[in-house]
Write a structure and sequence with these properties.
CATH superfamily of the largest domain: Exopolyphosphatase. Domain 2
Largest sheet: 6 strands, mixed
Order of helices and strands: EEEHEHHEHEEEHHEHEHHHHEH
Strand order of the largest sheet: 8-7-6-9-11-10
Radius of gyration: 19 Å
CATH architecture of the largest domain: 2-Layer Sandwich
Number of helices: 12
Number of domains: 2
């Protein structure tokens, strides 16, 4: 069977995981997911004294990219696009990293700026946004950064990227096990100081916050299970701010093992979910948001939409 020119494999190289999603574009302009895969990594946590990602971590990615390339071939995928976010963006040796990956896999990786990351997240969630949500914030809490966007009437108005995520804030503040009151307060103060540089984040109270990322999806699953809902009631899934505040307090008091057992979390999520939830709590309070809308969409969805839209435009005959 030949390659399907309507299929695209998007590889998202993040700080906490590397994900592959294969999409297929329909003739009606829709885009459906064909296959997905995920490998857990911890990129950018270990750097040398010059801020370089260490050799061991760089080479950890190579077999994963090779595996994903094989999956794409098995699914007759026409093109592969790989993007890297905060872990690579914040490293001093980005050129060395890119050359190593490309020479060993023939996959060219595009490093996204924080603003590009926010834009693709915006594109991803807007395609599943309820019609009544015409204004709000979008927050993507990753492993090494947090992207914040403000939108109105389907337009992205403002966005920024903070160099704080669930992985690096865990390492800098509480660690993977118990969190003290001092650690939680230190993290919150860190986030507040960064938010103070962007006054627009506090100028639109009582709007919904659309949340992206694995940590927010985990919180949504925990809340569904608490309510004994077998599947998402909707996408995005609504959670009251007070519920997030409850989880932030509760998770911080538990050990890593208790978080794993009580909430059925994998260790690769349980060790960083406290920091991610504390970041989310700080944002909800700062923005005075009316609700959290946990979305199952994200960067890869927005990137695929952007790609297929550009492909369609380039293939149209010119007059």
């Amino acid at each position: 069977m030949s390659e399907n020119r309507n299929r695209l494999g998007v590889i998202d190289i993040g700080s906490n995981s590397i994900r592959l999603i294969i999409y297929e574009a329909g003739a009606d302009g829709t885009c459906r997911m064909i296959h997905k895969a995920k490998e857990t990594v911890r990129l950018g946590v270990r750097r040398d004294e010059n801020g370089n990602m260490i050799e061991e971590d760089i080479r950890t990615v190579i077999p994963i990219l090779q595996k994903f390339k094989h999956i794409c071939a098995t699914n007759h995928t026409h093109q592969i696009r790989a993007v890297a976010t905060a872990a690579v963006r914040q490293s001093a040796n980005t050129e060395e990293i890119m050359k190593c990956w490309e020479s060993n896999t023939d996959i060219k990786v595009q490093i996204l700026s924080g603003e590009e990351e926010a834009y693709f997240g915006f594109l991803g969630v807007m395609r599943s946004m309820p019609a009544h949500v015409t204004e709000g914030f979008i927050v993507d809490i990753g492993g090494g950064s947090t992207e914040i966007s403000y939108f109105k009437n389907n337009q992205l108005i403002q966005s920024t990227s903070l160099p704080c995520g669930a992985v690096n804030m865990t390492m800098q503040n509480g660690g993977t096990d118990h969190w003290s009151e001092q650690s939680t307060a230190q993290l919150e103060q860190n986030i507040q100081q960064q938010l103070a540089e962007y006054p627009w984040t506090a100028m639109h109270p009582d709007l919904p916050l659309i949340g992206l990322g694995g940590g927010i999806r985990a919180l949504a699953r925990m809340e569904r299970e608490r309510k004994r809902q077998s599947k998402p009631a909707s996408d995005p899934y609504r959670i009251d701010p007070d519920t997030i505040f409850f989880y932030a307090e509760a998770l911080a008091t538990l050990s890593l093992e208790e978080r794993v057992n009580r909430f059925d979390l994998g260790k690769d999520r349980a060790d960083i979910i406290v920091a991610g939830t504390l970041i989310l709590r700080t944002l909800l309070k700062h923005m005075k948001c009316s609700a959290l809308l946990a979305s199952w969409r994200g960067l890869s969805d927005g990137f695929s939409h952007h790609f297929f839209t550009a492909e369609s435009a380039s293939s149209r005959p010119t007059s």
